[in-house]
Every structure is written in structure tokens, then in C-alpha cells.
User: Fold these one by one.
Assistant:
Number 1:
Amino acid sequence: MLQISAGETENSTVFWTMGGYYGLAVLVGVSLLLTTGQCDVSCSGLDGRPGERGAPGRDGHPGAKGEKGEPVVMAEGPEDPGVLLRLKGEMGSRGSQGVMGPKGYRGALGAAGSPGTAGRPGPNGKSIGHGGQHSPLQARSAFSVIRTDRSYPRVGQVVTFQNTVVNTPADFNAATGHFTCRVSGVYYFTFHSVAKVSVCLSIASDALLDKLGFCDYNKNSDQVLSGGAVLQLTAGQKVWLESFRDQQRPSELTDSQDKQIIFSGFLLFANTE
């Protein structure tokens, strides 16, 4: 080791100092070499423990879209039904109409609907009546009467009636048995009788050349006789019901069992001329 006196210059002192550090470093290095040479055979270090698992990383960015694939081509061999269902084929032809199914059950009756709107007014009617004459558009005539007398109607006489059901407007006289035409036009007349003996009745009128006779003969039960006629009448002509004899027995003409005769008539339409 170098020794420098105290009276040496400042530069010499620095050199001493740097030389001293250098020597110290050499000694430390030799000491480490000696220690390492002794532990190469008899000394060994312990293994370190594994580190902890790190936190999951973030998702990566989406990848680029791939190229369009080639059209599907079936390979030779058995066809896979699952694959065929996924393949869209061409539209087939329309099938034939199936058989009509059975009629369904009838549904419940719904609530009544709201009233409809009123229709437009119709045209004004035309009246052709003059003075006291009745207009055909307003003309009306109808009657229905019933005979309840148990005696047989006298042969050749007009049948009279005891009860009046309808007589509008009083064109029929129940006491005389005559209907008198008030409005010229076409009328319909009909009668029905029920008795336990044979009955013959005829429709008579000033408008007929001959009487229209109808008969029903007893068959040991209630006899039902009906007759009718359509007549063209002018004002003042009469229509009535009349009894006549055909093949009835004398006892039947004097029979007093229950009997009933209904005589009816009404205007179908009035003359327009």
C-alpha cells in the first residue's frame, strides 16, 4: 500500500483517495470469489413458489367477415332429410281442393244491431178520385159472417147470418144475406160449412149467368164443404149464398143438429177506368 505524507499536494491526496477505493474493491471481489468456491458443492437454493393466476384478459376485436360460400351440392349417396329441410326448393303446383268439412256448430245469437238510417222519401202518390167517388188507391171492402142457426137453410132461399166478424165498410147486410158492390173491381168470395148431414150451397150474383153450386154428402161424420170464386163486379151488383137440393134425403133437409156456415169476401183491386 502506498503512503503519502500530509504535506503532499491536493492532487496527491486525491490520488490517494482513489487508490484507497480501488484497493478496497479488489479485496471485496477476492472475498466473494473465496466464498463462492466453497458453496459450489455443499450449498443449494430453495425453489420459488408459483405466482398467482392473473385476471382474465379483455375480449379481442371482432374478426373480418368471411367470404361467401359456394352453393350447396348434394354428394352422391343417401339424402339426409335434415339437410333437405334446410334447403329451399322451388314452389310446387297448387293441390286439388279437399273435401268440405262438416258443418260447424251454430253460434250464439248476437246482440241486436243498431237501427239503420231512414231511407229517402218515396215519390208522392197520385190520386185519381173525383168528387164523392172513391179512389182505387184508397178503396177497400171486406166482410166475414157466420151462420149459427141449427136449422137447414131453406132450399132456393138466400142464406142469412147471425154473427158478423168483419164488415168494412158495411157493404154486407147480414139480415138479408146480400153483399152489395160499392167500388167496381175484382173481388174474391169463399164459404165453408160444417154439418152432420149432406149440404149443397151455391154462390149467386147479378154478375153470373149461372150459379156456382157445391155439394158434400154425408158419410156418417162431420161434413166439411168449401167453395170460392173470383168475380168482376160493377157498382150496385150483389153477391149472396144460396141453398139448393141435389141428392139430399128429405130427413136431411129438416135436420136440426149443429151446423155452421162461414161466408167471406174482399176486394182484390179496384178498376182504374
Number 2:
Amino acid sequence: MNFLNRSVQAVVLSAVFIKELVLSSVAVARQVLGDSAALRPAILAVPVGLRSRAGITTLANCVSLTPGTTSLHVSEDLSTLYVHVLDAPDPDAVVTSIKNTFETRIKEIEG
């Protein structure tokens, strides 16, 4: 993959991150101002299909910088990212969302 193509993919990832940042900020604000007893926090194992340490670091940072989620740990074999989620009524949907929003775009940059 050439430099221009990777640059375009990086811009796409940035736009997706900004969108997720805004959506997550609104969701967290609603949760904080609403009934916090209804929250279902969870620690989730997100299988990682990225090839590089830089890609995994980028994924972990995108997750941590998005309100309501925090990266906790990457497994020794780099195959799993553990994430704390403020509200996970459907844990599988949260994992799928992380993989579809961030990991997919980071894979495109990795080439």
C-alpha cells in the first residue's frame, strides 16, 4: 500500500474516531445524568487481528480516548485486548463495535 493510500485511510480513521468520540460523549453524559443504577459495567476480551505493535497500540489508544471505555491490558501474545466498558448491556455488540469501527480501519492502514 502506498503512502497516499495510507494517508487517506488515516484520515478516515480520524473521522471515525471523532464521530465515536462525539457519540460516546453524549451517551456517557446521558448515563451520568440518568439512572446510574441501570449501568452494566464489564471487562471484555476483544480478540485482536492486527499484525503490528503500532496497530495494537493505536487500537488501545482509540478505545481509551473514547468516553466510557478504557483499555486495560494486551495479552502477552498480542491476540487479546482487555477493555473496561462503563455500560455493556450486550457485551458481544460492544466487542463487534470496537472491531468494526476501529480495528477494521487500522487494518487498512497496516496494509
